[in-house]
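User: I've been trying to design a sequence by hand for this structure and keep getting stuck. Would you show me what you'd pick, starting by listing the structure so we're on the same page?

Assistant: Good idea, let's start from the same input. This is the structure you sent:
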């Protein structure tokens, strides 16, 4: 997958894996990584799917309706890519924390839904429930931060709460940070994510 890797000054800090939103690129979230954990190594990935020229991490049939077969295929593709990137760049595969926004949060959420050991932790900004009717893996050791907007028209508060419940039921320690805003990523949400990561590192 097309990506940027930047080695950090602290090799024991969590390795941040960045997943952009629809229409973004691997450049977009680099400032976020800097704000959340400036000494971390960073792997920023570009989604392999194009929707009218806009990069994404998996296909959708319409807004909020995912192509489930493609989601499963792309989730494995990202999982395998993380394994290969850890070998290529020499980072600790067991210390990977995902940071995703919107579609990027949904692929990171899908990694959690499908693999017990994909991530050490995840910061999901404005995620949705990636799949329903699935038995989730044991996520006891995989804490999750969810940044949600009370007025988010894409990821409704009800869906954020459903995601919180599904992850908690799988054993994850989930922290939901609420903003009064909509789908946009706010500064205070990023600050809250940075504080949360300090607490679990
Ligand atoms: C998705 O397709 O992953 C969500 O609808 C968020 C987005 O608009 O990218």
């Amino acid at each position: 997958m097309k990506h940027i890797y930047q080695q950090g000054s602290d090799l024991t800090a969590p390795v941040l894996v960045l997943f952009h939103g629809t229409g973004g690129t691997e450049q977009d979230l680099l400032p976020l990584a800097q704000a959340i954990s400036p000494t971390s190594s960073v792997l920023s990935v570009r989604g392999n799917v194009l929707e009218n020229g806009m990069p994404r991490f998996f296909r959708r049939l319409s807004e909020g309706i995912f192509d489930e077969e493609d989601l499963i295929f792309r989730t494995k593709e990202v999982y395998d890519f993380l394994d290969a990137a850890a070998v290529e760049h020499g980072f600790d595969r067991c210390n990977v924390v995902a940071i995703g926004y919107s579609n990027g949060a949904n692929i990171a959420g899908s990694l959690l839904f499908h693999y017990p050991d994909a991530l050490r932790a995840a910061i999901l900004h404005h995620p949705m429930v990636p799949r329903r009717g699935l038995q989730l893996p044991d996520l006891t050791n995989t804490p999750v931060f969810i940044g949600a907007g009370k007025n988010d028209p894409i990821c409704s508060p009800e869906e954020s709460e459903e995601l919180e419940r599904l992850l908690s039921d799988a054993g994850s320690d989930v922290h939901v940070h609420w903003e009064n805003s909509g789908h946009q990523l706010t500064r205070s949400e990023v600050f809250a994510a940075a504080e949360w990561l300090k607490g679990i590192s």
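That's my pick for every position. To get oriented when you compare it with your attempt: The two ends are 28 Å apart (CA to CA). Residues 68-89 form the longest helix (22 residues).
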